Every structure is written in structure tokens, then in C-alpha cells.
Amino acid sequence: MQLVIVESPAKAKTIEKYLGSDYRVLASYGHVRDLPPKDGSVDPDQNFAMEWENYADKARQLKAIADEAKKADRLILATDPDREGEAISWHVQEVLKNRKALPDKVERVTFNAITKPAILHAMQNPRELDTDLIDAYRARRALDYLVGFTLSPVLWRKLPGAKSAGRVQSVALRLIVGREREIEAFKPQEYWSVTADMEQDGTPFVARLVQWEGKKLDRLSIGNEGDATRAKADVEAGRFQVQSVETKPATRNPPPPFTTSTLQQEAARKLGFSADHTMRIAQQLYEDGAITYMRTDGVQMDGSAISAARKAVADRYDASYVPDKPRVYQSKAKNAQEAHEAIRPTDFSRDHAGSGDHGRLYDLIWKRALASQMASARMERTTIDMADGTGRHVLRATGQVVLFPGYLALYEEGQDDSQDEEARRLPRLREGDAPAKKEVKAEQHFTQPPPRFSEASLVKRMEELGIGRPSTYASIIKTLKDRAYVRVEKNRFFAEESGRLVTAFLERFFEKYVGYDYTAELEEELDDVSGGRAQWQAVLDAFWRDFKPRTSEVMEQQPSAITAELDQFLAPYLFPERADGADPRLCPNCGEGKLALRGGRFGAFIACSNYPECKYTRRFAQGGEGAGEGSGPETLGQDPETGLPVERKSGRFGPYIQLGEGKDAKRASIPKDVDLDLEWALKLLSLPRTIGNHPETGEPITASIGRYGPYLAHAGKYARLTSTSDVFETGMNAAVVKLAEAAAGGGRAARGTASREPLKILGKHPRTEAEIKLMEGRYGPYVTDGETNATIPKTVDKDQLTLEEAAQLIDARAAAAPARKKPAKKAPAKKAATKTATSKTAAEKKPAAKKAPARKAAAKPKSDA
User: Fold this and answer.
1) How far apart are CA 9 and CA 15, in angstroms?
2) Which end of the chain has the lower number of beta carbons within 10 A, N or C?
3) In total, how many domains does the chain have?
4) DSSP conformation class of 450
5) Record's PROSITE patterns (predicted)?
């Protein structure tokens, strides 16, 4: 018997189908072991010896693999064809070796697609494990561990509120923060454009002023309304004749097939997918045998695939769309060694695969790969210059006409494939023609700051700088989101305060290690390890020799000294110069103290140097013109009952109101939907509000505002309210109804009850006559017949699900479910005297061993560098 090990059960099932009965295929479910998250897992003093630990949730799978391995004549390691795949195979081999279950014959096979020809060819061409790739994996894993477990404790102790830092993700975060600084420092510049709507032979077109008063204009030449008005008047007064017509042929070549990074970029631009989501969907398409391996920086395709693509083009279009020679692309990556072929369909005659997001991503991959073997697009670009009688003012019109679409008939990179090239068509004009001038416009514009990074542009920039590697981009971005160092709004990254502070700390105290050039050079050294050109311990030693002393040096500094350094480093951001020349650090509350950065239990904030006499504070990152305005205490009035002042203040967690001082002071946060005045302040300070006693239980019902917004409370049960005003206006009847609805929805308000309604009634089960409903559940859509619930696979679009497909899902789920046991009858109580030697009382039974917390059974994501 021959044992084959792969990562996922879906992959195992497909491969076992292609192999004979002599093969047994098992899945490892991703990595089977890792460095335990504790000090000492990597020992620099022992030549970077690494202590590995098996995942607790993989015990059952490892036992199954070991049991089969003991019976096998040959072990075939068939994990993915990259560094991580090589590492998984190595870990499996090491675990079996430690358990003395390793067969005498161990071989490694790789394939770029899960198709029968590719699998059979791989089995006939085995090799040994690639020690260079394994060493590169160990070097990266050790580096990530050493940075995380050495630098993160420094952050925790010296920068309250910071979570952690990473070798590559901190550099990616620096890119986002750096762009935020560029935007804040940007000063918009006014400029004007002058254009003329013109027409020739019934065809309208637009021309712009490119020369005025004998001077050539660039974009910023006309900088004020007065000049723009004069230029507009000159154009309106002039009679413009065609001075020159220049036509140039142009050719556009198709882009190469997708690599990992270009797939992530294009899926973000065209489909709105995150990098993480793109890689999950691509992984499933690969395991389904629809596409080739999706972690690659190679752009070339196999010769047989090129032939298949050219045939598909000829079948779909005509011979003119097939270039004379096959197109061969060369990778620009310095070390594209991990999975050489580009991402492409395994079968070019298959233009659809899956549905929903799977179908959309497959369509993108199929079009891009097919277009890469299509003819170039041929165009004609025309430039027409028109001068007035003086020759001092010139208008220019440009246009482009597609003469032959070529690959553009199928695919256009980086756009939504909706742009109409014909809209740019210019009328046929000759020298001396005088087209009609319909209207002249002078429009004001302002220069724009550089845009914030999207996932596509961030991945592109990281690739340009050589930071990280394509297989790690998705996990790097996900880590930044998970740690709340960044937030995403309208598909753009915004740096959070915590992200800005961590970046400032690293730039000030670990500048070298968040440097773009240094990070790229280290990546090249790791690539040299994978290529057999460098020794992995030597690379680690060179890094550790400088890094460890630096962290020790920073750790010895007092937190107050760290904060003082950051105060100076961040001064241009926190305390920018004011337009009126006033001191930006002057406290707006007392007018005497100086503002400075302070560190607290929950993070950094700005405070007055006159504390405790002056208690002015504001959140970190509230710099800029007018930052102090409204940030200090503002007296709203006096409480009529106590005579104490009611003040509006701003703290580390945002604005709040306060009644009184000291320990007895009452405080309340200010909701966003409140236009605050004294009346509202007193209402908020009076909370919680007692509505009355519940008519059934006699227990009080209260209304208040909590961490998640306004709510009702009764006897430990809660119901959400929609607005702050509801807290003060909801009466007894409405409160009882809302609490009842929340209880019926499992603790959720009306939203919970709505979710119980079916999305669609599909009809009666063709075999049982039970009504089948399509439902939306907590973990996604499912179908049910009232007895059995069946989850809808991710590769199936719920909106396209048929009655028969739903019935099959329910039948399969019912067949797979374990038989229900009848409830056991309660045994009669035994007398102590009847205890026998063969039976034990509950007190004598050995208590069950405490189970380790279960890990997810899904395959572990690739290393996040």
C-alpha cells in the first residue's frame, strides 16, 4: 500500500479518485505543528535550534496518518509546490520519524494543477524533499518568532495600549501611516482649465486651451479666476482654424496571466474582494481542479496550456485574433522560484466554474489567461491643434479610435470593461477647417493629495519595494485589520491612532528594522537561502547580532523617557504651527500650561503640564488647527437640584459630560445623535431611567445607554433601542413588546425574529413531500425540510439553487447524521453493599482528562511573514 499525504480533504478526495486501489490518500489539514508561543522556542545560543510542538487539534489526524504509515510500503508527500508546502511535508516526515512510523521509502511529488494527467505525471517523477526550501521556511519562521517575541514585549512595557509588532506587517503599516502624513501635509493648489465645446459635421468634441498669449500652458499655469476669465474671453472672441492634424498608430499588448499579487490587485479593483477572500476562493478553485496553483510569482504558462489557449481563442473568435507566434512572458520577480507557472484555468474550453464569488473569480482568471495569448489591439491616436487668427491662442483636441480590438474584445486590465473607446472619436478634420464653437467653459480645480491605499495599490506598492512575498500579502493585511492598527472605509486604508503611535515608536527607536530597503534586502537574503546560495543560520545570526542589543537598550529606558522622545518626534503632527502664530502647545483651558504627550494605562493622550490644577486632556492624534477648540471643559450650566456645574469635556475615549468633581462626580458619554445642551446633559446624567414594573413579573424595566448603544433591561434580559430619544420616550406597552420580541429572537431584537423567516420556499421534497425552505443562518445560508438542516456549499449560489439540488443536500446530510439514541432509562439507585469487584461507583471512576482547547480543523493559513 502507498500512502499519499496532502493538505486538505477536498484535495485528498480528488486525488484518490485519480489513483488506483493501491493508494491511500490522507489530509494533514494544513500544518501539523509549529513553534509554541512561549520563550525559548527558538534558541539563538544553540545555533537557532527550534522546538516544535504538534497542534493539539491534529492529534487524531496525526494518529490516522501514523497508523496508515506503519502499513505502507511507500510514503508520498504531495503537498503544495511552494515553500509552505515543502515545510508541511517536512513536518509530517519528522512527526512520523519521531513516532517510528516512517516507511523505508519516502518521496516528494509536486503538481501545479489537480487534474488526472498532472497527478499521474507527478507520481511517475518523484524527488526528494528540497532542503533549501525547508531551510528558507525555517529561517522565515524563526525571524518572525524572534521579532514578535522580542519586540512585542518592548511595546507592551514602553507603549501602553500597543498590541504587537511584526517583521513585515510593521513595514506595511508604515506605508499606510506614511501616506496619511502625506495627505495631512498636502496643501491644495488652485488652478483653472479652459475648454471649448465644438462641433464639426454634426459631431461634437471638446478642445482644451494649451497655449494662451503665446505661452504654453501646463496644468497649473492658470492659477486664479481673473486669469481664467480673461483666457475664456480670448477663446470666445477668437475664430479657431485647424492648424495641424497628427495621427499616430498605436499598439497595446495584452498583460501576462495572473501571479498571486496581480490576481489580488485585479480582484480588489474589479470584484471588490479583499486579498484574504481572493486567496480563499482561489484555494477552493484550485482544490476543485479548476485552476492551477495560486501562489506563484511566475508569469509563464506550460506549452500545452499555450496551445490550448490559442485553440480556444480561434474557436471563440477568428484567426485574426490569434497572434502569429505564441506569446512567452518573463517574470520580473528576482527569485520567482516557488511555483513557476502563472495562475490559469486547467481547461481553457471551460469558461465557467462554480457560482457566486467562485464563478466571478474564475471568470477573471480565465479571461486574463486567454487574453494573454490573443493578438494586440491596434489603435489610431489623433491630435488636432486649432489656432486663432493671432496665432497666440491654441486649442487642442485628442482622440483615440480602436481599429482592431484584439485582446480588448475579451479583457481590459484595471478597468470595469465598460469604457467606450468610441466616445473619444474625433470628427474628420483637415488643415484650414474651422469647427463651430458652441460654448467656452472656465472651471476651477484644486490639486489633490495622493490617494489612500486600497488593497490593490498597497499590494502593488509592497511588491514594488520588495517587501514580503506574494503568498504573505493577504495575511499581512489581515493582521493589520485584526489588530485594529488600520480601518477600511470605502475600500481605502485609514491609519488608526494605535497604528500611528506604534509606527512612530518603531521609526524612532527601530528605524533600521522598519526601513523599506533593509526589509527588501532581508527578503532577498531569504530568497538566497531558498535558492541554495546562503546558509539559513548565518542569515539569522547577522540579524540577531544587531537586533537583540537594540531591543535590550530600548527596554532599559524609562517609559517617561520614551514618551518624551515620541513627544518630540510627533510634534509636527500633534502640535502643528498655528496660522495666528500662537504657541500650538499652549493649553486652551488654563492658558498657562504646556501640552505634551502622556502615556496611560489605555494608551497615549495629550495633557496639560499644570495637572492636577488643570485637568485638560485630549485624545492622541487631535493635532491641527483648532484642535484645542472645544477640547477643554465647557460649562453648559448648573444642575437646578444640586447647583453643581455641568461641564462638557473631552477625554481619551471621546467627549463626555460631568456633574461635580472628584470621586462623587457623575459622568456620561455623549451619543452621536444628540445635539448637546444643558437639558440633554441633565437627561443623560439621570440615566438609567425606570419605566415601571413589568405587568407579569413585577420586576422593574429600565432604559439606558451602554457600550453598544441604547437598550432596555428587565430581570437580566435586554432589548435594543434604535436611538437615544427612545431611551426617554419608550413607554410601558412598547417596552414589554420589545422585550418579548428580543426574547423570541434569542436575545436579539426584532432583527432576530426577521431572520426566522425563510428567504425562499423551494417546494415539496420530491421523495418525502416535506416543504423545503431556504434559510439564512448564523454561519450562512442553508436548506431545511423541518427535520434536517443542510448547509449550502460555498461553491453554490443560493439564488440559483434548485429544488432537486436542495433535496439532495438534505438527503446527504440526513444520511451522514448519526442515528439518534433513545434516552437511557434511569438506573435504580444501587445499595452500597451490592458493589461488586467488576463495577465501580461514580466516585471510584478516574476523572476524564481535561481536553486542550480545540483548534480549528481547517488548514492553517500560510505564514504571514
Assistant:
1) 10
2) N
3) 6
4) P
5) TOPO_IA_1, TOPO_IA_2, TOPRIM
**Are the CB atoms for 342 and 365 separated by under 8 Å?**
no
The set of residues, in sequence order, having a beta carbon less than 8 Å from that of 825 and lying 6+ positions away, is none
Strand order of the β-sheet with 595-600 is: 595-600, 603-608, 617-619
Q: What CATH code is carried by the domain that includes residue 565?
A: 3.30.65
Listed in order, strand segments (DSSP E) in 709-808 are 709-714, 717-720, 760-764, 771-777, 780-784, 789-791
Neighbour count for residue 678 (Cβ, 10 Å)? 16
* Residue 500: all three cell numbers together: 500611528
Grid-cell match 527578503, residue found: 523
pLDDT tens digits, one per residue of 439-476: 999 999 999 999 999 988 998 899 889 888 777 888 88
Distance CA 26, CA 32 (A): 13
Provide the residue type at 476 as one letter.
I
7 and 118, same domain (yes or no): yes
Give phi and psi for 193, each to the nearest 5.
-120, 145
* Other Cβ atoms closer than 10 A to 323: 17
C-alpha cell belonging to residue 687: 440615566
For residue 332, give its domain range: 260-375
Q: Is the dihedral of CA 148, 154, 159, 160 positive or negative?
A: positive
pLDDT per position as a tens digit, 233-286: 999 999 999 999 999 998 999 999 999 999 999 999 899 898 889 999 999 999
- Any idea which residues carry the catalytic annotation? 293
Rounded CA separation 378/252 (Å):
7
